[in-house]
Fold each of these.
Amino acid sequence: MLPELLLGTDAGGFLIIRDSASYSGRHLLKSFINAALNREEYVHVLGFEGSEEELRDGLKGSPTQRLHFHNAFTDPLGWTDHPAFTVYQFNFEELTHLVKQTSHPKPAILIIDSLSWILRHVSPPAVCKTLQQLKKGGAVRAIIGLLHADMHQRGTVGSVCHLASSIITVAPGMKGDEAVAKITKRSKSGKVIQDEEIFNIKEDFTVTVQSKLSHIGPKQPDPEEKEMDPTANLTFNLRLSDTEREAKGKLALPFVFSKEKKTALLHSGPGSGRILYEPDANDDYDQEDPDDDLDV
Amino acid sequence: MYTELNSILSTTPDSFTQGEFILVSDRQSDASFLIHHFLSFYLRARCKVCFLGLVQSFSHYNAVSQRLGVSLAQAKEKGQLIFLEGLTESLSVLSQETNSGSQAMDFLRDPTVGLRRLYEFIRSSVSSSGGGEDGAEEWGPPVLLVDDVSVLLSLGVSAEAVLDFSHYCRATVCSQLQGNTVMLVRCDGEEVVDDGDDEGSERLLKGLTHQCSLTLHVQGLPTGYCRDIHGQVEVCWRRRQGDGQNTQKKLFQYKVHDKGASFFARGTSSAVL
């Protein structure tokens, strides 16, 4: 499902890449930027966690003339005199103004790197409100945000993720450069699709999906499988014919002590040994009188 | 400076990656030997070094560096090293009413104001490298070393404020001036399963891990104390490297000697083989 998401987020879509300290989701975010640029989209990046040089350095092979970087990295809190964009400006009006500064023939895609930086300084309800307004606002076609899930309380992560139409949770894979992506996609009809894929990102930010881990969700039962008789191709017989049943009834089981067996055992043939037994005093053992001194 | 660690990180004082944010962390162990390594490394690399020594006195760092073959006092005289001695600075803030000294440690009076003053002190000291007096030596890219940021938490600064501070340091030193930053953070307790509500040093460690480009995490041996192996260090490159690898992890065991440290692959200590 990852390649489909890279192909294009629907209008009004909001995609969140969730990562943790063990695996950075920024490479995947760059893949999304790269894919959008190659689709001839207009991309606005709100960068809190990396400089413009860093971003452009990684995207050397792509057409970056439609990439607009808004520098919130060098001074996000207004500690110096001339901040370009501070975290307190993260609201609907400012962002719409920012995106509309450059005129485009079509709505742009807004990349937020990262939501965690904003959530550390702006209250979660205000962030959610801004995101919701941006989704409905029309100035941006889609929003893609990076979220460090281990930096926030579970409730905060949950409420932001509820707004998203797609969530990609990335985690390190088993082998060196592999990673695992858990994808939850909510389509407009309300259907929720979940998937888990192993992927790796090449140097030019193309994503290749190695394999699908599992299909979570209701699996469609195979119609042919229902009809099939599980006893069809057995190497043994489950049912008995009449003659077989008769033969089975005649068979003497080994624990049944028949007359022939008894005589065969008792009257052994000539030449075989016999046991002669003469009882002596020790055989007359009385448990109630072990010393044999009671006059009973 | 430990040459074995240099070969692990594939750096030398003559050629090292610029713009790196190195996070040194430890858990129930002591990673300060790595701070001494980086201090002597960058002094040998002729970088302009700004050192925030919040844990020990200057004479302590000087004594250790002397053993590693670098004189801090000389470097300070030449203007290569700017040393903020947290212990004496904080004492002067607390004892004197007047603002006589630097305002870097102003957060001690009111921890809620954040570390803006401390950042401004760093910015002014690292960016003054170009405009020196006549005859002053030219120094290389600026380097910021902090030993250690967890002390700021104990002084009443919130983890959020420390993360803001480190962000500004990274933006200025690593990104703008193409220098390097090394920060030490210490965690005491056991590693906890992440549930997002952890406090203080754990949160700081996670936040800094998200910011940094290289982590060196020092731990004790999981099997307990050993005389010949002092612990293990996990090296993790988080940025995309030239060879195209995403994140790379390597684990080494180490032993700290009197005048250096040796690093070896797991199970290849001289005591084992």
Amino acid sequence: MLQDCIAAIATPLGEGGISIIRISGDESIAIADRIFRFKGKLTQMTSHTVHYGKIVHPEDGRILDEVLVLIMLAPKTFTAEDVVEVHCHGGMFITQQVLQLILRAGARLAEPGEFTKRAFLNGRIDLIQAESVIDLIRSKSDRAHRLAISQLDGKISKDISKFRNEMLQLLAHVEVNIDYPEHDTELMTQDEIIDSTNRWISVLDEWLRTAREGKLIREGIQTVLAGRPNVGKSSLLNSFVKAERAIVTDIAGTTRDVIEEWIQIKGYALRLMDTAGLRDTEDLVEQIGVERTRVAIECADLILFVINANEPLSNEEWTLLKMFESRPVILILNKTDLTVNVNTDEIIFKFPNLRIVSVSVLQQTGLDRLETEIIDIIQVNGVIVDESSVLSRSRHIELVTQARMMLEDANSAAGMGVPIDLIQIDLRLAWETLGHLVGQTASDSLLDELFSQFCLGK
Amino acid sequence: MMSYKAGSFDVIVIGAGHAGCESALAAARMGCSTLLMTINLDMVAFMPCNPSVGGPAKGHVVREIDALGGEMGRNIDQTFIQMRMLNTGKGPAVHALRAQADKILYQKKMKETIESTPNLSLRQGMVEELIVEMGVCRGVVTKTGAIYEAKAVVLTTGTYLRGKVIIGELMYESGPNNQQPSLSLAKCLKDLGFELVRFKTGTPPRVHGDTIDFSKTEIQPGDDKVKYFSYETKSMEIEQLPCWLTYTSSETHSIIESNLHRAPMFSGVIEGTGPRYCPSIEDKIVRFADKPKHQIFLEPEGRDTKEYYVQGLSTSMPEDVQLDILRSIPGLERVEMMRTGYAIEYDAMVPTQLKPTLETKLIQGLFTAGQINGTSGYEEAAGQGLMAGINAACLVLQRKPVVLDRSDAYIGVMIDDLVTKGTNEPYRLLTSRAEYRLLLRHDNADLRLTEIGYSIGLITQSRFDSFITKKKLVEEEIKRLRTTKARPDVATQAMLERQSSVKLVNSVDWVSILRRPEISIHNVFEVCPSPFLLNEEEMEQVEIQIKYEGYIDKQLLHVERLKKMERKLIPSTLVYDAVHGLSNEAKQKLKLIMPLSVGQASRISGVTPADLSILLVYMESMRQRVAANE
């Protein structure tokens, strides 16, 4: 049985230096041959050799990067399968493009921890390490899962759900025609499918375009501004981006949704999220905002916890401090231009390791100190973006590209007059593939749609 | 009640409905001495609801039952009054045969078959208790005190377990069609530790055909050229009876609306969960208020009766309202109601308590099949009955159990859904439940399953021989069409022109001509006749396999990948709590379902790919540890 071929970027993310893409599986050398140009064929080379050449786009012949390619034949490799390593020199953006090419040439993106898993299952790693392999898979998957959802831009995530819902209605209609052929539902025609798929394909094209521009997913250190209402979180965000982005008023609870901004501090990209203030509220819209805040906090790499220095700490704030204790957090005492009524000694006594910075956003004081602390915590706590974020971007592009191909197939099949239940195969696959983007794969929803949309019975 | 030892059998089947009949026949034919018990001998293979067999997915199941050596296909072929192939305008995978049955004749034939099968005893009696010792089922005790010993017991109790009929304000304990319900057995199952749920289903009223004005309805005739369910049936000379189509009127809707306060569905009397796909007429009118009219099919219940089944009018409204509803329908203005429609509530097992063999996890040697497992439909019941009977026999004969994959059969899809995911409403098979619809076709049930049927002894040698001949002929012909060239000669071009197909410029193989949607195998044979004597069935097979090869191959590739996971078996001794790294949700679910393979585990909701990877790594480390100790 063929072992399918997996690929991923093996080196940590960073500008400059060399990035390595690793491919493993029976087909890995053949796949590399499809995009790598040098004087020869990799499949004819001996094991454990290095080759210099160029990565060439197979369709337009464009040269993407000059690279070194290492080929290693099974079993003397990390995974005990045939392994290819592509050493790219063109920086992260180019490396991602090379990875995309490899995926299109027949590999699939590795699951988190999959190289190590294969190494173990193929007997390359000894028994003692089994537990650490498990830990690796668990932690990497959890983070990838977190990222996959949190990185997706809120608007696009909504678009995808809307889009899939439209697909689902058409799928349900076709299913009713098949499973209830005598029911008085109109027959879905090939022409209608051609129209719908044409429309859907152009939507996916638009997504792919935005994805390549980096707008589909946002990468960077996810930083959440948390705190009670009206302590000045929005003002702080505005002062960071130096623009009136969040609406600032005196009325507690103004920020009802999560607002995101993109800022650079000393070369680090931070995805800064202003959140609805954390408090129990009766207002339904605000409740939703508070719920989103909690989700944002759970996914955050860094928490900036803002309090009003003019008031003593509330019970809620004590609870939050306790909750954030094990997380990378900076406590920001704002409004220090007013009388300071916060008991900082008590805070330090209870949380001796807590980083505390005093600022006045109004008077623009203490902000340099805050930036220094942010950089420090990033470096000390190792809050750096790892390869999972790049992976999840690649995965998104891979999924959308696959779904697009399936819709193309359905579209051309409909044009040739292929029976509707066969066209449905690709339509359904496309719908399921897009579901992976938003973490939804349950096919039960098709039946739910079927029975809610149509009146069926005996 | 004095009890006495009444006999000893290999397999006892309790209930002689569609599941029970298949179970008992399979076990007996595999060589086990078998007892089939029923509350009422006149109810063998009774159809308490619609007098029909088949349709999409359900008809596929009947073909599968036949391909495995079961009875339903043969029995309906002998007793149908109308046959139709549905979905002929769509692809071959969803072509579905549906028969209207002569309900009485269907029962009579099935009873005859059972009575004349060696190793099989058919008896009337109410089983009240299971004999269980140390977690193993040893036999049953009847109401009359008879103790029957057995090595395996199959429960196919249908809707009889604590059955309760509801008609408007009226409610009484009853099985279907006023049969005696089974009360003690439900309690016995509960006491043994099984979790039971309450489900509900319903049936429409029946009317007298002489009081129907058919001129106000549309005729629905059977097919001119009849196809059959069983691969064994060659031809049946029978005169078909038509069905008739009419619609509800606005008057029907207002009668229902003004009587909703008397509808048990809405007054809260019914506790059981009903199926979404089988709503009562009152349900349909409330949920789909915009729909001005609903289809009503009038189906004859048999050749020697004037009763008609009113399909589309399932209801539990009070009797007087039912009559008003009927008479508001065009063609039924003066109709006489012969039987009242009703809803029935009953106990069912939570099916995740079963292994994929349909044996209960809790008690060795106890199997359940059919409605007791939360399904609905004769075909679903029969499919499970067959598998439970086969596996009960395998247990007795100490043979390897038979479990069908999701890519082998709709029966496999259904059983896997039930035991892996459970169901929160009566489960009905739909073609959309299958991932590989194109592989699970009506036409290829024999290619998928007859070898299995033969290997367990349910398919006779002569039938198997003719199956092998067919298979070889089809393969040879496909090979011939692949290697023979179509040339741009006069005959070929003329044929292509007749079919409005593009003419040839160069020679191509016949396979690519046949792939054109407008070209049939008969067109090909006009120009390039086969040297083999192919019958219609074989020609159809060649055509389908060539025309849809691209799609078929795509699905086969998926299946191949998944099979790797299906083949990775999880040892039954695995302690999930000891697998460090599994999420808590995954641990809970895995402990409950106890999947046989990693493939089955992957289909449990809440078990993620990461959990599966961790499971694989854990299993491998256990294997290495064992190997190191040896």
Amino acid sequence: MTYVMSGDPDLETGQAILNGLPGAGADIIELGMAFSDPMADGPSIQAAAIRALDAGVTLKKTLDQVRTFRIEDDETPIVLMGYYNPIHHYGVEAFVQDAKEAGADGLIVVDLPPEEESELCIPALQGGLNFIYLTTPTTDDGRLPRVVEKASGFVYYVSVKGTTGAGSAAVSDIDAAVKRIRKHTDLPVAVGFGITTPEAAADVAAVSDAAVVGSALVNRVRDNLDADGKAGPGLVDEVLGFVGDLAASVRKTQSKG
Amino acid sequence: MSKPNTYRPNTLRDGPDETGHFGIFGGQFVAETLMPLVHDVAKAYEAAKADPEFEAEKAYYLSQYVGRPSPLYLAQRLTDHLGGAKVYLKREDLNHTGAHKVNNTIGQILLAKRMGKSRIIAETGAGQHGVATATVCALFDIPCTIYMGTKDIERQAPNVFRMKMLGAEVKPVTVGSCSLKDALNEAIRDWVTNVDSTYFLIGTAAGMHPFPMMVRDFQCVIGDEVREQIMEAEGRLPDTLVACIGGGSNAIGLFHPFLDDQDVKIIGTEAAGKGIETGEHAASLTAGSPGVLHGNRMYLLQDDDGQVQEADSISAGLDYPGIGPEHCWLHDMGRVEYVPVTDTEALDAFHALTKLEGIIPALESSHALAHAMKIAPDLPKDHILVVNLSGRGDKDLNTVAHAMGVDMGVNL
């Protein structure tokens, strides 16, 4: 599973990356919706959001990117991931309708815990979009049932206490956490935050249903910018090549298992 | 007409509801990692509130350490100069650390101690909350880290030095607008990362529930004292209250005890920066719309895409694109009137009070003062107007000198 920021580093290059992800081996795509104040993100994804916003991305243009992607690919699931305010400003009802129509399959909204489910979770479910909840190391057994109660699609386990791209958890801890979550839900469990290499992705995928790689992928975008901060010539190939490495590593482990 | 004792009138003072909402505002828009801790804070606060020992300890520090009650001072020369309403100043500038912020940090540090937290983090704009936090952390020997935007570090250098001397680590925030909004983002990121050990000591009546309620409760000492003091001085309640609003903690602290007194007119002043029409301001209620940031729904300065806009004010403490949820609610129902005040108007008020009364007000408080000075001349002489002088202005001397074209190192 891969996370990329919509419109990073510009709309055209972002679209090319998005369109190339399934071919490179991504099973599910998380597409970041840029926000000016990404409070749960570390420096990598903060920088990606700034690049995308500077390049003129908006929530509407992110939905356009999904729509364009769907011309060629009608199968690979796309989950939109971001923060609530741009959706709130767009209008919840209109957003759910437009996201569904554009071809999105689900939503992950970091600052909408179950306590605020009436805001977007329930309208999204009614509108035919999955609403994916995050569980974390601080979500104890007392709270887990509440978190997974309305979850759909899959459950996203945030494996570290921290922002995206910071640190990484021991595979044994992830294994234990996934087993704990599975006691409360039959949904697949994806694991993210702090997974940076093909090897780590394979290790995590072996004890869960999917490993999410975000910051490491976004860093490949950053590393292939030219001196003016524009997309360098090999950027798309570099990013997709890394996705290929991730996918190959994960599949090797899965075929062994 | 008298009413039976059991009759409970409608009150504006029992918000928020159990889910932390004031009408549509407030709430708990928080990442899951923090959610269990946010519930813990709420539970611990409810328990503390009900514990007479907690109240006694808080009262002890407020009187013996902070120096409360702060005077309600009749500004006679200012009153004579304006020629209208009688202007009283609530002297929060005389508190230890020089602003109202310490009322809240005393309350929250006692709570953090009860919760067994071993580390404190806080955000600061003008540095007043940072200083108040560093101060109580020194007092209770708890390590603390203060997040502050580099723009604010530059214009509030004396406060940065104070925090460091008090033993705090001051972490410069270089992202976004490099001011209060971004300091809050970084503090939240720190909290997510150090959730077990760390208490986030929020400085204003905003953020996720229970903070807007808790900070308000700790600041209500301001309004409660004003009620008593004005009864003693004048034998009746004031006619008008004025306070400045950034996040809104000094204002809600003054206003809240008077919300049910319908005859008391209440006015909050927002920072209009270089003028509303320039787009460079921090007037969320005048020019913003409801949005979600930093854990709560509030009025927010944002663009067509829901991206948060940078605020602008000469006063670092008001330089924030949102405003606490209870103020948003009071604004929508019309109980409190909110008016914009520009940088220039605030500076004029700053100089006027300094010359007329020998009191150097904070630039934040100067926004409240400016509006009071605007309306007082047209009010009758028996009109009682109370201005919350939320902080002292020593920290702002560099900014004021700069605005006057004075280089303090060269041509004083």
Amino acid sequence: MVEVIVFAIFALAALAGGLVMVSARSPVYSAMGLLLAMFSMAVFYVMNGAHFVAAVQVLIYAGAVMTLFLFVIMLIGVDRAVDRTETIPYQRPIVYVLGAGLVALIGIAVLDVAAAFDGSLQVAWTTGRPSGNCTLDCVGTIENISGELFTGWLLPFEATVLLLTIAAVGTVALGQFALKPRDEAPEGVE
Amino acid sequence: MTGWETFLTAAIKVVLAFALLLNVTILVVWFERKVVADLQNRIGPDRAGPWGILQTVADGIKLLFKESVTPRKVEFGPYIAAPIAALIPALLIFLVVPIGRPFTLGDRVIDLSGMDLNIGLLYILALSSLAVYAVVLAGWSSGSKYPLLGAVRASAQMISYEAAMGLALVPLILFTGTTSLHQIVELQSGTYLNFIPAWNWILVPSFVIFFIAGFAETNRAPFDLVEAESEIVGGYHTEYSGFRFAMFFLAEYINIFNISAITVTLFLGGWNGPTFGLGAPFDWILPIVWFLAKTTALIFVFVWVRATLPRMRYDQLMSFGWKRLIPVSLLWIALSTVAIGLRRMPPSWWPFV
């Protein structure tokens, strides 16, 4: 019962955050909406027993990524409302198609779960705490996560590390080798 | 325990922790004013109560009854939300810090902290990373140039020093093998050679880096560019008055207490200390006294530094953070990883044996 109430509150908060993010006039409000959505997701993780993921969600997304967003928004001018004229003409049709696809995917997942309750169909894409008695071994503690990460999923983990290292090196490289004066970008292009 | 008992225990603990924090803030503000006055050959507050100890109460009541002026150009929603956003993380962080030895009441054991989280350290880092939003929102929504400058400085500064702060904790996690603050404190109990307390001495570099980053995270001197009076008036809280300002003030001093308490917990043994074999009530009263004494000592360092060092320049601040603190902590991570790895290997693998 408590779980349902908490879920209802934070699901509404997440939806509201998402709506604010896409509909707000000012980018600062958009950022705050996204922050609210991310925070609500952290609550969902806690409800599913994934404490570590929840902490990391707040630490990385709310603490680092969104702060950087806000920092950049402030530096490039805060009072300017975003110009809403479309510059890419085919953007809207694509969005409709992709949106319909997303709704279809979510629908399939929901139907799947509904079927799973009847016991007739195997659940493919549901997450969360496995049903039945859950002791400490199915809770997302640091010990469990690192155990999985460094035994079962070492190669994908290392591949991700490599990817992030490449990204970091690339960023440094882009910052280090400044454009020569004659290569400078033309007026108006950043 | 039944559901209601769990709920009641948690509620009582949270209320007590908040009460403790608010009372401690009153004392910390008074302590700072007295110590700074001493260091500057002044007397300091001495009118309200004995040694002026009620001065902060008087100031608080004054702020409570003062008009909260709202400038015309503010964005009202974020403007109101910012002081709240400053106070909430400050209050929540303290909930994972154990302030004393767990004691038994009847048949159950009660921890002297809000909760014992498996992810305690990450919880602290996550919440302290949220503190920057208050500053950013306040600065942006005030619709005035000095708060905005303060907010831009604050976000850059806090992101930079948060990195150093997180990196300083990596050797600690590797060394203790846990992120639960309760376990970290318990691992520091006992003594070496019967008289040196078994604190995390070996992690002194981590301690220094963490504490320096703590100064920057709380926007204290010498890193108080966020509210540098001589350059940008009051910084992010220039346009705030009355109790909204008081909330920022409260959050700052709670954060000082929090950083000191966390540093004590992680590196200086937490509530561990001699109990002199005095028996039942002292077994859990003395640890609280030790904890508060150590925390007060670190708060004194905060005040001492504030009274001694001039404010850094902005470029000095940034280059110190990125070019000194972070490389040093990375180097220290590498060194300590090798040392800890060697310690854990079976002796037959050890080349020096």
